[in-house]
Amino acid sequence: MSRWLWSFRTKVMAAIVAALLLVLALSHLLIYRSASQAQFDQLRSQLIILAQTASLLVDADALERIPDTREGARTPEYVDIYSRLKRVRELNPSIRYIYTLKPSDVPGHLKFAVDLDPDPEDNRHRGTTAYPGDLYDAREFPEMIKAFTGPAADRELIEDSWGVALSGYAPIRNADGKAVAILGVDMDARDVRDAQRRAVREAQRVLLIGILASLLIGALLARSLTNRVTQLIEGTRGLSSGDLSVRVKVGGRDEISDLGRSFNEMAAALLESRAKLEAYFCNVMEALVRMLEAKDKYTQGHSERVGVYAKKIALKLGLPEKEADLLRRAGELHDIGKLAVHEHVLNKVEPLTEAEWEMIRRHPVTGYETLKTLGLDEIIMNSIRSHHERVDGTGYPRKLDGDKAGIHAQIVAVADAYDAMTTTRPYRKAMDRRSAMEELRRSAGTQFNRDVVEALIRALEEDPRFS
User: Fold this and answer.
1) Is residue 46 one of the residues assigned to a domain?
2) Mean pLDDT per segment of 10 residues, for the chain of length 467 residues?
3) Whether residue 451 sits in one domain with residue 313
4) Using CA atoms, how far apart are residues 409 and 65, in angstroms rounded to an integer?
5) Among 9, 306, 347, 462, which is most exposed with the fewest C-beta within 10 angstroms?
């Protein structure tokens, strides 16, 4: 889990998602606020116009003549202004309250002049009409105070026990242009508030969808980007394991694509270099084998034939073609250690002395030690060192019993023995193919692996050319 959290893909995805979310949040905030503010400003403008229009219906001189007492509500001036304002409310159903206020001697307070009864359909505030001279605390409504100098409207919705409202104000001027009072209009803003809440919910829903989309897009983009990086990593691992045929498919026209193409070019160059080195090595090995066979006139072609037999056995046993080719090479090199054995010993007709036998028994180790620094495949190296081990544990150089020598060495052992029996040596004549096959079967289970022996016999019987 921790490895995934700190992986390159996770970091890339986090960066992409963060960038998308930032853009989304900023655009969302700007669009929402802009739309919401535009709607609110439009409403304020309409309310100011309404207040200004209504204020023109109020006679400032008549308003000033209304006494600041309860009896003032019975004067003709009050009744006239009241009826005018009532008509305005009837023509504009969204208006809940409409009233006029005059300055007072109390700081931050105004006093009512004319105040309509509450909305007839609103029973919560029946009987709450203010009378002329009643004080009103305007300290929390700065726009109301400003209305004496010019039309204004509240800058935010007001929600209280009277409901949700937005108020607009306009000055009521006398004949000299002096503002002697203001007219206030409270518009029912429940629909505006509900619309804002719906907008907030819609904005939250859009934001949530945006977050999910950002995560999905981020994951897909991160996967697209890191998949190409992953291919490069896997290709590098393939190269480090020795597979120079590996290639990566990194599309696009960016830096990662350039890196992919450079990787493929490098792999191709390495593969070409390896091919040249292998060709050079094969030439050297063939020269060494020819040198070996030149020392022993009876073994001319022996190593090549052992390689052919070894490959046939491997294929009969169902081993992969690649392993079969390695065994063919192992057969060709299995006796390379005999280069250290004097040709007098190799061609001696008389029985060998113990010291001479020891030289012969050393050739698998000598061959192994000679080639181990060349980086040859382990199949080849083990076959060279262990092709004289026996199943019963009496072989050399390490006296490995059972299958400890490995199937590849056992294959080379049978191939070597068969070719040795069917070719003339200084100490005996060549055996015919049938006799050699019978001898292999007699030695199966003690000297040789039974399955390997039977695989060679099947190959020989199916192809008479191998006789």
Assistant:
1) yes
2) 53 62 58 65 86 91 92 92 91 88 93 77 53 91 91 82 80 92 86 65 69 68 67 75 74 70 78 71 70 64 89 94 92 85 74 83 89 84 93 92 92 92 75 89 93 92 67
3) yes
4) 127
5) 462
Contacts of 70 (CB under 8 A, 6+ apart): 131, 132, 133
Both 192 and 323 in one domain: the answer is: no
Conformational region of residue 264, where left means phi above 0, alpha means psi within -120 to 50, and beta covers everything else: alpha
The one-letter amino acid at 125: H
What is the DSSP code string of 32-52? HHHHHHHHHHHHHHHHHHHHH
DSSP state of 442: H
CB atoms within 10 A of CB 272: 11
Which residue range(s) make up the domain with 59? 2-197
Residue 42: φ, ψ to 5°: -65, -40
Burial class of 199 by CB neighbour count within 10 A (0 to 12, 13 to 18, 19+): middle
Residues 6+ apart with CB under 8 A from 349: 426, 427
Asked whether the whole model's pTM tops 0.85, one would answer no
In this structure, what CATH number is given to the domain that contains residue 310?
1.10.3210.10
Residue 411 lies in a domain: yes
Which residues sit opposite 171 in a β-bridge? 182
Whether 165 contacts 158, CB under 8 Å: yes
Strand partners of residue 101: 112, 182
CA nearest 57: which of 37, 81, 31? Answer: 81
Q: Whats the size of the chain, residue-wise?
A: 467
Peptide bond into 397 cis (omega under 30): yes
Of 266, 451, 264, 282, the C-alpha closest to 374 is 282
**What was the pLDDT predicted at 126?**
45
Say if residue 59 is exposed, middle or buried (CB neighbours under 10 Å; 0-12, 13-18, 19+).
middle
* The two three-digit tokens of residue 429, written as one number: 């004549």
